[in-house]
Design a protein that fits this description.
By secondary structure, the protein is of the alpha+beta class. Helix content is 20%, strand content 28%. Strand 13, helix 7 and strand 14 form a beta-alpha-beta unit. Helix 7 runs parallel beside helix 8. The two termini are 14 Å apart. One of its GO terms (biological process) is proteolysis. Keywords: Hydrolase, Protease. One of its GO terms (molecular function) is serine-type peptidase activity. It comes from Capnocytophaga haemolytica.
Length: 505
């Protein structure tokens, strides 16, 4: 069961209630502050300074590497944790042009050690992203560099009943122009990831040319798509394949979203009813999500390890002893799905009791997906097919700026800033957590961009390889000949979405 906890007397700070369910609720910063004045919105400088103070206080309390960042030290500005009455501290905050600059300068070697903490000035977008809601035409694609600075977008999958599906877009399609402009490494973000509601794409195709290298060919065909706010069901495909005396469950799961936990449980009920003997879990495009959803999925796959240790958390040196004292650093396999407060059982988990698992991965498989792989490897045989994963073994929490005390505590109405800092590192039951370079596959396999196959079909190369491994029957579906790496993955369509490549509590 997901745990409850209360942080008390945090290094001399006031009592902090983090809500009933730490897995499903944001963290409240450990400072009870009143509005900066009666009408904070009337004084932008005061609001700006207040937000900077919120950022420093939140990172000082929760940031995983707080002890490694000199400017976040408790006594950086005096003998105690500062407030805005401290002239040295106030001058430090005022030295930064805006809150975002301050935030990224306080991180631990951002881009090298800390690759994933982020901040937003509109937490509504963040909250929607955690529910699977984003601006989209319904296609998921990867962006690849070619011919020096050219960029081609290659479609990985299309959501059912979306505008992209209606326009005939399918897996493996590609495009090189948006609204008449040729994509390149300098403009692709502004053309594709800046929130436009309508896009006209010029389509292309990818073939294997001379010297066994990919070549991009423009077709001249154009497609106009409208982007709207869509809620993506992360369960893209679930089916049972009977092959070689095995009943193989196939699940393509693209994000760990709590709102779909019960739907996921229904999938496993069907797998169980149909007598699934083996499972292929397709996480190749899954950037992560909710920790509790990862635990639920792992419990559905197994079931025989109920209440045994699934993962263990390592917080910063200030929080770790507090978390250990209240029993809040261990996560266990479960047999029930709980509501957002962790107090009411919503359903019994449908478990398969498997002792082996086949997982499909790529260089876009991250965070909560890696947590499932690493967590299960401590108990069962996990065969990983595909590419090395991202290597994100840390989790984050949402930190809001609350004002008031007790039940009168509310989000500060003067702004909508919120942080998503990394706050803990996750190890499996055997203590293994060292995979920042990614989890390497048991069987390496790359997608053939000139013939990606149809997801869920037995002939799709990744699934075909998994079926071959399960049944022992050789498949000719996957490409044995390696194509030269003439296209480099540089980004994807979800990189602009808050919460992507995330593992959060």
């Amino acid at each position: 069961m997901v745990k409850k906890f209360l942080l008390v007397s945090l290094i001399g700070l006031s009592v902090l209630s983090c809500g009933d369910d730490f897995d499903d609720k944001p963290v409240v910063p450990p400072v009870n502050k009143e509005p900066v004045n009666e009408d904070p919105k009337s004084d932008s400088e005061d609001v700006n300074l207040h937000v900077k103070d919120f950022i420093w206080q939140g990172l000082n309390s929760y940031y995983l590497w707080q002890g490694d960042v000199k400017d976040l030290a408790d006594k950086r500005f005096g003998d105690s944790i500062p407030d805005l009455k401290n002239a040295k501290y106030k001058k430090f905050l005022e030295g930064y042009d805006n809150p975002k600059t301050l935030f990224y300068n306080l991180l631990n070697n951002y881009g090298r050690i800390d690759r994933f903490s982020y901040i937003t000035d509109d937490y509504t977008v963040l909250e929607e992203a955690f529910k699977g809601i984003s601006l989209s035409s319904g296609m998921d694609y990867q962006l690849m560099a070619y011919d020096n600075n050219g960029v081609v977008a290659v479609v990985r999958y299309v959501l059912p009943n979306s505008g992209a599906e209606a326009a005939g877009i399918k897996r493996g399609d590609a495009f090189t122009k948006v609204d008449g402009e040729l994509l390149n490494t300098s403009n692709y973000r502004s053309l594709l990831l800046s929130g436009k509601t309508q896009l006209t794409l010029e389509m292309a195709k990818i073939e294997v040319g001379e010297n066994n290298r990919y070549k991009v060919i423009n077709t001249g065909k154009t497609v106009t798509l409208t982007q709207t706010k869509l809620t993506e069901n992360p369960i893209l495909i679930s089916k049972v394949i009977e092959k070689g005396g095995h009943k193989i469950g196939y699940l393509m799961y693209n994000s760990f979203v709590a709102d779909f936990d019960l739907k996921l449980n229904e999938v496993f009920a069907k797998f169980k009813a149909e007598g699934v003997t083996d499972l292929v879990l397709d996480l190749r495009y899954n950037g992560g999500g909710r920790v509790s959803s990862a635990i639920y999925l792992s419990s559905m796959i197994t079931g025989q390890f109920n209440k045994q240790l699934f993962s263990k958390e390592q917080w910063n040196s200030k929080l770790q002893p507090i978390r250990e004292k209240i029993g809040g650093v261990e996560n266990f396999f479960v047999d029930k799905i709980y509501n957002n407060t962790g107090t009411t059982s919503l359903a019994n988990i449908n478990s398969l009791g498997l002792t082996r698992l086949y997982v499909l991965t790529t260089g876009r498989t991250a965070s909560a997906s890696e947590l499932v792989i690493n967590g299960l490897r401590a108990y069962i045989e996990v065969t990983q097919i595909g590419g090395t994963t991202v290597g994100k073994n840390q989790a984050s929490v949402t930190v809001y700026d609350y004002i008031g005390t007790g039940r009168s505590r509310v989000k500060n109405p003067s702004h909508k800033w919120a942080m998503q800092p990394l706050v803990l590192k996750m190890a499996n039951a055997k203590g293994f957590s060292d995979y920042t370079s990614g989890l390497a596959p048991t069987i390496e396999l790359k997608e053939n961009l000139s013939n990606m196959g149809v997801l869920g079909e037995e002939s799709e190369p990744f699934l075909a390889k998994a079926i071959e491994r399960i049944t022992g029957q050789t498949s000719r579906a996957y490409t044995r000949k390696t194509v030269a790496p003439s296209l480099e993955v540089i980004d994807d369509s979800k990189s602009g979405i808050f919460g992507y490549n995330e593992m959060y509590k």
